[in-house]
Amino acid sequence: MRTGYLRRIAGVAALVLLVCNARGAALAAGPRDVEALIGAMLGPTPVITDARTLTDGIGGRPVGSAANRAAVAWAERTLQAAGVTVRRERFEVPDPWLPGAVEVRLSGDLAFAPHAVAKPFSVAVDDRAAPVVDGGFGTQEDFARLGAAAGGAWVLVETPVLDDAVGLAGLFREYDEAPGIESRGAAAGVAGMIFMSSRPRNLLFRHNASMGAKNRLPLIVMEREPAQRILRTLRAGGRVTAAVTIRTRTGGAVAAENVVAEIPGILEPDEVVLVGAHLDSHDLGTGALDNGANVAMLIDMLRQIHRLGLRPRRTIRIALFNAEEAGLYGSWGYVRRHAAELDRHRLAASIDIGTGAITGFYTGGRPALAATVDRLLEPVAGLGPFTQIDAPLVGTDNFDFMMEGVPNLVANQADANYASNYHAESDTFDKIDQKQLKLNGAIVAALVWGFANADLDLERQSRAEIEALIAATDLAQQMRAFNVWDDWAAGRRGRRP
Questions:
Q1: CB atoms < 10 A from the CB of 109, how many?
Q2: Percent of residues in the chain assigned helix, strand, coil, to nearest 5
Q3: Domains in the chain: ranges and CATH
Q4: How far apart are CA 440 and CA 444, in angstroms?
Q5: Any residues with CB less than 8 A from the CB of 148 and at least 6 apart, and which?
Q6: Strand order in the sheet with 254-263
Q7: What is the predicted pLDDT for the residue at 359?
Q8: Cβ-based burial of 181 (10 A; exposed 0-12, middle 13-18, buried ≥19)
Q9: For residues 416 and 86, what is the distance between their CA atoms, to the nearest angstrom?
Q10: Mind listing the pLDDT tens digit for each residue in 70-122?
Q11: Vertex 149, ends 147 and 152: CA angle to 5°?
């Protein structure tokens, strides 16, 4: 880290501490403790070096890969070097999927080989040749227009562009629309589906097949500009055939590991304040925004608490979850392993939207939790303003805690450059906003320290309360979009009655 950069961060730290002294609220452990922790997070620390080591040094980390195992070992070593208690917790991923090569050869009125990648959980095919047809945006009307022509064809689906101007709204739209598009393709008996990349300038990315391991279709994402060329040809009356080969590595269940570390509480050590980020990533890019930067930030938080000799009332625990991208298996594995302790988990938070500024937290449809977050963010009010969104959110490692009734948070962050690089080749270390990562670390540390020391009146919800939350919100729709509804409905996931 450059010396000039450290001096600028130190200046920011001094300014923020002045604001904190003026506006901070006293917590159970005393305001000086939280002020010391905020100052430490804003000062010179190894957080940027850690983020670079994880992303540049190890790279993309899909579960089941050698890089994923190297990341687990690195996280354990780094936490040990920080002086905190750390352990690995093993769980099973029942349906791992690793990518292989994808080849596309076009013939007819176009003859070239566009670049493409498979969607995770795509099935493999060997030189499957079929006509390409114009699937529009994959709507019901588009498939009705195609009629029988979709059967046995490669259906090319157009996508709106997703760049920094569109941001998270465009990303959420992609997730919302994908299940319907893929199900319509399956019903039409397509040979496979080609999704135009929503990212411009030939940038490729991966999103999971919406049915996960239950998917039975070949699904690929093609570079945007070649896909547009194909559509222009088809719409001008031309004919195009695609021969597609998709290689994948699948097989039986594999073992994966979460990395769990903690600072024990001194008064109520059995009560746990948990905050997590996911250690795995897709293989495209190096998983910097999603989610290596926040892994490094949580490691740094425990490092600074230990270095300062701070002793929380409750246990502060971080979980570097694995297999989040594969289906939230790491956090699901955690709640099953710790099922007997969940009544004593006072909070489970997830930080997973890159390095944009934290603007508040999703508080899961629990007004009392939103009010508590408002109060506990007062020591870092100068880094706000913060607005809590009291609604449930699916898509990251808070999910299984929410379905178990544990108070849960997800950091809401400014999009910055997150959505445009999400799951893409461009998600690399240079995209990390280093200054904002430090500021976000101070916000998270202050909030976690607050939960670990404040008087709390937050109980675990019952199954009936969770069901009421589903009925009153769009939670069921989100769960279906992320392919977790069936496990809940079948009683495999979530709190039992």
A1: 14
A2: 45, 20, 35
A3: 3-95+253-489 (3.40.630.10), 97-250 (3.50.30.30)
A4: 6
A5: none
A6: 85-93, 254-263, 314-321, 268-278, 345-350, 408-413, 358-362
A7: 98
A8: buried
A9: 33
A10: 999 999 999 999 999 999 999 999 999 999 999 999 999 999 999 999 999 99
A11: 120
Q: Which amino acid is at 306?
A: H
What are the pLDDT digits (tens) for 115-163?
999 999 999 999 999 999 999 999 999 999 999 999 999 999 999 999 9
Q: How does strand 154-157 pair with strand 125-134?
A: parallel
Contact 228, 160 (CB under 8 A): no
- Residue 470, number of CB atoms within 10 A of its CB: 19
Contact between 135 and 157 under an 8 Å Cβ cutoff? The reply is yes
**Which tokens in the block code for residue 278?**
């996911």
Tokens read off for 379 = 């020591």
Residue 169 is encoded by which pair of tokens? 């709204």
DSSP 250-261: E-S-EEEEEEEE
Looking only at Cα atoms, what is the longest distance across the chain? 75
Q: What pairs with residue 276 in β-bridges?
A: 319, 350
Answer whether 156's CB lies under 8 Å from 134's CB: yes
DSSP-derived secondary structure letter, 2 = -
315: CB partners within 8 A, 6+ apart? 262, 263, 264, 265, 268, 269, 270, 271, 272, 273, 452
- Note the Cα 233 to chain centre separation in Å: 37
